[in-house]
Design a protein that fits this description.
The chain has 35 helices and 2 strands. By secondary structure, it is mainly α. Among the domains are: 438 residues, no CATH class; 49 residues, no CATH class. It has a two-stranded antiparallel ribbon with strand order 1-2. Helix 8 runs parallel beside helix 11 and helix 26 runs antiparallel to helix 27. The longest helix has 37 residues. The chain starts with a helix and ends with a helix. The mean pLDDT is 88.
Length: 747
């Protein structure tokens, strides 16, 4: 039984190493990370349960000791502390959606580290994992090549995934690059130490393919990490080759030459050349003052340091960077990324510093320096040449993780690789192996072995049920999202309800659930049903506030429902909308959308001065943003003919600005209202140009055609009016207004 358990653990660990970077599933809303995390959690929990059962069978606990024990356990305790002392406990436990790097994942990582450390014992064991990494890298690189050649078997959404930068099975070009820079050193060392020519050729092909795909990701962080890796490997290889007993370098000279020539030849391929050119264009901007100023990461890092300044001891709480970022978001970052809220700080060190304070950061740096000192000692002092190069290969994987991590953040696909590399390095220390041992014989646990076996089995089943439930919740969540985007809002409600039932702690599920009801509110004509939907939306959005009181969008969502309540049913509810909008603005003061939404409420209640004051504030914050100026023009237009010149001034100012940020409705209404103003001022040619612009912006907007047609009639340009009406009829042949206008024109 014990051997069966040990073999099962080994297979589970190898499954993690192979499946986690490769798996994705398009039926879940989060196509990549949730599937990788479910796989990681499932096999980690399973392996841990088997390991504990082995302890019960052996009547003793035996765990390998390493120099990393103190910093690893210290980092875990710091993570646990910052989960307790946090700005949002739900996020610190489960992690933000799409990354899931809360305390549960930290526990998974540490369990995976100790499992790998204790069950990877011999050099033969290590080679099993190296070949598993080789297989995963081959699949990832092959799919990446297929994507670059246009042979992708999945039709990805171009609004979500950039057609210019492919991502293979990792979901993001930077994540793909991060995984490859971890695997390339290990594969290179395998190429170095493999003697059989057929195997060497196979490894060489996969190695070159992985490097080419790394270039094609166009990831600056990945490319920098690759250059550092190449530099370190070159220096170490030359240094190590000077040793008399080392014949590997001299035996591989021709292979090295073949490898180098192949890489040089590959760089002349059009795809690779274009990737290098893009990398250069993206990188050279960083060497100019303007380029640095226009780099969003600079302002993310500045916000991270501001978080640490305000929370120096324990930070804002494990994985709460996204939650807290709006409080520290600078206007220039909003301008550069427009309403962007990064999930992480895009720097692994600043991420820990901001969210876990000096306590977490101290242990993280201790982990880094302990790894560095002990690994270098093993790299230079290990006498067995094969083991020495294996250690060096995984050492470079960890270094590559840290280098790319200066500009990136961790996800499970290459986060698990990092912990595997650490465990393999320290598992290969042969000179001074030590074990923590605790004898269970005659203890309470040993005397009640059957009970503890049963308890372990029950806990394992419960844990795995929750893992699968959370995954299933994302399936329902996606169906709900599809229903909303296809204007089938009434169908989204039961799917969102099922999603929150299966995973009640996932905030985004509740947010979309409430928005689903909001979509129905606008369509419903029955006052009683509409009131029911309003109350349901309020109930759900208020629940999201309980889940996350720090998120300004949760207050904004409640305010938006009260705004609809005021417009459709009860004008006294505008006061509640104002209160919740102000709460949202407190949490995200530079969020233009919150301020403009509040301005629309002030417009509804006739508080024009307050609305103008708000719009001017956001116009000053974002000088190129047209929408606040359009709102001011609209406010003056509402005040009648005596304010027509002010309305004209602000509308003209709005259309002179370049930024509308996909707000086509406001943009088209701005041109339309300015056209009306020009008509009232007898500026008919200018009015004509405005109405033409409306049709250009919104080709399916019937009102635009009607306004332009009527203006042509008034100007006695009847043929042009007829052409406009006929063009509109192609869009909606059943529109009575168009039919009447055409008939009247014919008469």
């Amino acid at each position: 039984m014990k051997k069966y358990f040990e073999k099962s653990i080994e297979l589970s660990l190898m499954t993690i190493v192979f499946i986690v970077p490769v798996i994705f599933f398009t039926r879940t809303n989060d196509v990549f990370e949730i599937n990788k995390m479910v796989t990681f959690r499932f096999f980690t929990f399973y392996s841990t349960a088997l390991w504990l059962m082995i302890f019960l069978m052996d009547k003793k606990i035996i765990i390998r000791k390493t120099a990393l024990d103190f910093p690893v356990i210290g980092f875990f305790l710091a993570s646990l502390l910052t989960t307790i002392i946090t700005k949002n406990r739900t996020v610190s436990i489960y992690g933000v959606y799409e990354d899931f790097e809360g305390i549960i994942t930290i526990i998974n990582y540490i369990l995976f580290f100790y499992l790998s450390l204790n069950f990877i014992k011999t050099r033969r064991d290590v080679f099993k994992y190296i070949y598993t990494i080789l297989g995963a890298t081959f699949i990832i690189s092959l799919y990446g090549l297929a994507q670059n050649l246009g042979w992708d078997f999945v039709k990805w959404n171009p609004e979500t995934y950039s057609p210019e930068r492919f991502f293979s099975t990792l979901g993001n070009p930077n994540f793909l690059a991060a995984y490859l820079v971890e695997s390339i050193p290990v594969i290179f060392i395998l190429f170095f130490i493999t003697h059989k020519i057929s195997k060497k050729l196979l490894v060489l092909v996969i190695l070159i393919l992985a490097i080419i795909i790394l270039f094609l990701t166009k990831s600056r962080a990945g490319f920098l990490s690759f250059l550092v890796t190449v530099l370190f490997i070159t220096i170490y290889t030359i240094f190590d080759a000077r040793k008399k007993e080392n014949e590997l370098f001299s035996k591989n000279k021709i292979w090295f030459l073949t490898f180098g020539l192949t890489i040089i030849l590959a760089s002349f391929h059009p795809l690779v050349k274009e990737a290098f050119q893009t990398l250069w264009e993206r990188s050279k901007n960083l060497f100019s003052l303007t380029g640095i100023i226009m780099t969003p990461r600079i302002y993310i890092w500045k916000s991270a340091l501001m978080m640490f300044r305000d929370n120096p001891v324990t930070g804002t709480g494990l994985d709460t960077f996204q939650v807290m970022f709006p409080y520290y978001r600078l206007p220039i970052y909003w301008q550069l990324e427009w309403n962007g809220t990064p999930e992480k700080s895009h720097n692994v060190f600043l991420q820990v510093l901001a969210t876990q304070g000096i306590i977490g950061f101290g242990f993280y740096m201790l982990l880094f320096f302990t790894f560095l000192k002990k690994s270098l000692n093993l790299v230079f002092k290990e006498k067995d040449i094969i083991r020495r190069y294996i250690i060096f290969g995984f050492f470079m994987s960890v270094i590559a993780f840290y280098v790319q991590g200066l500009f990136n953040y961790t996800v499970v696909a290459y986060g698990s690789f990092y912990w595997l590399a650490l465990s393999i390095i320290f598992s290969q220390e042969t000179s001074n192996r030590q074990y923590f041992t605790y004898n269970l014989e005659n203890s309470f646990i040993e005397k009640n072995k059957t009970m503890f076996f049963s308890l372990l089995l029950i806990i394992l089943i419960i844990a795995q049920v929750f893992v699968i439930r959370y995954w299933a919740g994302d399936l329902y969540f996606k169906i709900g999202n599809i229903a909303v985007t296809t204007d089938k809002e009434e169908y989204c409600i039961p799917y969102y309800a099922k999603a929150v039932e299966l995973n009640p702690m996932r905030e985004i599920y509740w947010v979309k659930y409430g928005i689903g009801y909001e979509k129905i509110i606008r369509k419903e004509q029955n006052p009683e049903k509409r009131l029911f939907y309003i109350n349901e939306a309020l109930k759900i959005h208020n629940h999201t506030i309980k889940l996350n009181k720090m998120n300004g969008y949760n207050y904004n969502n409640v305010a938006r429902v009260y705004k609809a309540y005021g417009e459709l049913n009860d004008r006294t509810k505008f006061k509640d909308a104002i209160d919740f909008y102000n709460e949202a603005i407190k949490r995200d003061p530079n969020n233009a959308y919150f301020g403009l939404d509040l301005a629309t409420v002030y417009i509804n209640i006739g508080a024009f001065d307050k609305a103008i004051e708000l719009c001017k504030r956001y116009s000053e914050l974002y000088p190129d943003y047209a929408v606040p100026l359009s709102y001011i023009g609209y406010i003056y237009m509402l005040q009648g003919p005596q304010k027509i010149n002010e309305a004209k001034f602000y509308y003209e100012l709005a259309i002179s600005k370049p930024q509308w940020h996909k707000d086509i409705v406001t943009q088209s209404s701005t041109y339309s209202n300015l056209g009306i103003i020009y008509y009232n001022l007898k500026m008919l040619n200018e009015a004509t140009e405005m109405f033409k612009k409306v049709i250009e912006i919104r080709p399916d907007y019937i009102e635009g055609y009607l306004n332009l047609g009527r203006l042509y009639v008034l100007m006695n340009r009847k043929e042009e009016a007829k052409a406009v009406y006929e063009q509109a009829m192609k869009i909606n042949p059943n529109d009575e207004r168009l039919l009447q206008s055409l008939n009247q024109l014919k008469r």
